[in-house]
Design a protein that fits this description.
Layout lengths: L2 E5 L2 E4 L4 E8 L7 E7 L6 E7 L5 E3 L7 E6 L4 E6 L8 E8 L11 E2 L3 E6 L1
Parallel strand pairs: 2-11
Antiparallel strand pairs: 1-3, 3-8, 4-5, 4-9, 5-6, 7-8, 9-10, 9-11
Length: about 120
């Protein structure tokens, strides 16, 4: 059974950093892609960053370039999202999702984790 579980969210002040984790199991990690999404209340779910296990490629949304870094630990089948210099606009529920290829469309994702909440205060 495919399982994705996010962790690492919490309350942080503006300017702080968080490293989110997505623990994956139940599939061949090296041949799929994991995408981080985020969704704030009342807003659409948006893709943040994606990493492809097959090709080792990384893709970032324009809004995420610079402060967001996606990485993976293939041995432990964990994908990370490092977020630096947090601002209140980063407040959202962050999800990881599984797809065959990187795609920014939520509808393309086959599996989702339950999400982890990130709240940035000022």
């Amino acid at each position: 059974e495919v399982q994705l579980v996010e962790s690492g969210g919490g309350l942080v002040q503006t300017g702080g950093s968080l490293k989110l984790s997505c623990a994956a199991s139940g599939f061949s990690f090296d041949y799929y892609a994991i995408t981080w999404f985020r969704q704030a209340p009342g807003k659409e779910r948006e893709g943040v960053a994606c990493i492809s296990g097959r090709y080792g490629s990384e893709i970032y949304a324009d809004s995420a370039k610079g402060r967001f870094t996606i990485s993976s630990d293939n041995t432990n089948q964990t994908v990370y999202l490092q977020v630096d210099n947090l601002v209140p606009e980063d407040t959202a529920t962050y999800y990881c999702a599984l797809n065959g290829l990187c795609s920014p469309k939520p509808s393309d994702q086959a599996y989702w984790g339950p999400g982890t909440q990130v709240t940035v205060s000022s």
